[in-house]
Write a structure and sequence with these properties.
Largest sheet: 4 strands, mixed
Distance between the termini: 25 Å
Number of helices: 1
Length: 73
């Protein structure tokens, strides 16, 4: 079955936006749920994430209508 995905990028409001979409579409997050920057170590040689950024969303998926998936970061 074909699937369409839309990837949305937000500065720092991803979680608020996706919780709103979740309520509008009466859906639940799919995949591995919510992946946050603090859940993964930074790549070798990269600086550590700032404490205020560790809780930001790295990736999120929400199935909506007709097999369409909203994804974001």
């Amino acid at each position: 079955m074909a699937r369409t995905s839309t990837y949305l990028n937000f500065s720092r409001e991803t979680e608020e936006a996706f919780n709103f979409y979740k309520s509008v579409f009466s859906s639940e997050f799919s995949g591995n749920g919510i992946a946050r920057f603090g859940d993964f170590p930074p790549p070798e040689g990269a600086p550590q994430f700032a404490d205020e950024d560790k809780n930001l969303i790295m990736h999120i998926e929400l199935p909506i209508l007709g097999g369409h998936i909203l994804m974001g970061k």
